[in-house]
Specification:
Blueprint lengths: L1 E7 L2 H15 L3 E7 L1 E5 L3 E4 L5 H12 L6 E7 L19 H19 L9 E2 L2 E2 L11 H8 L24 H11 L6 H12 L1 H7 L1 H11 L2
Parallel strand pairs: 1-2, 1-5, 5-6, 5-7
Antiparallel strand pairs: 3-4
Helix pairs in contact: 1-6, 7-8
Length: about 220
């Protein structure tokens, strides 16, 4: 079975891949999430999760590409909060929608990895993916599932929603911020690896793919392997 290594921004994305995505691919592909290493202290310890600088992302990808037993290496990084030194960020198109901007970033990302991680020897093995705008956007594929989970079906944070991958109005209204507010209304906190996964399970991967075209295109590309 072909093994695909997925460099994930943090534990939330890793858990999502392992619990929600991988089981739907298990007859065709083995999807193995790997959490991004963001800090190293000495030679024996390291911390994982979150995005610091692009140099650290590149280093982890180059390391994964050296694993010749993996059919491909891909990523699960959030567009929201990408580091300032990310390839293509300084030259983002001023016109066009979010998909135009993400396509630009992914193209520059792929070219940078090709240039720094072995060139032609890795052609076709690296598949860049940037989630628009963040993991929690997928949960808005079915807002009623968010409301049901927290017992707040009528929350204002579930109203007047655009397509899930477009949600990022302000710092207070990006997908995760909305869910935190809904949880707060219910007198609860929001734990992505627990609440997020429970909501995702209720929605199902098929519904997320239908509602989020960029996310779906990534999975289609993996399926073609």
């Amino acid at each position: 079975m072909k093994r695909i290594l997925i460099l994930c921004e943090g534990q939330t994305e890793s858990t999502f891949v392992r619990q929600i995505v991988a089981p739907c691919f298990e007859e065709k592909l083995f999807l193995q999430p790997v959490v991004l290493t963001t800090k190293r202290e000495g030679s024996m310890s390291k911390k994982a999760g979150g995005v610091g600088t692009y140099v650290k992302i590149r280093a982890d990808i180059c390391k994964l590409l050296r694993d010749s037993s993996a059919r491909a290496v891909t990523t699960f990084l959030d567009y929201y909060g990408l580091p300032k030194d990310f390839p293509g960020k300084a030259t983002l198109p001023k016109s066009g929608d979010i998909y135009t901007k993400v396509a630009h970033l992914e193209k520059e990302f792929e070219e940078d990895i090709q240039s720094h991680c072995g060139g032609s020897s890795h052609t076709g093995r690296f598949i860049p993916f940037i989630m628009v705008h963040e993991f929690e956007a997928l949960l808005f594929a079915e807002p009623t599932s968010i409301g049901s989970h927290f017992g707040r079906e009528s929350s204002k944070h579930l109203l007047r929603l655009p397509q899930p991958e477009y949600i990022n109005d302000t710092q207070e209204r990006h997908p995760k911020a909305r869910i935190i507010q809904i949880a707060h209304e219910a007198g609860r906190g929001y734990k992505p690896t627990i609440d997020g996964m429970s909501i995702a399970q209720a929605i199902g991967l098929a519904r997320m793919r239908d509602a989020c075209p960029h996310f779906n295109a990534w999975l289609q590309r993996l399926e073609q392997l």
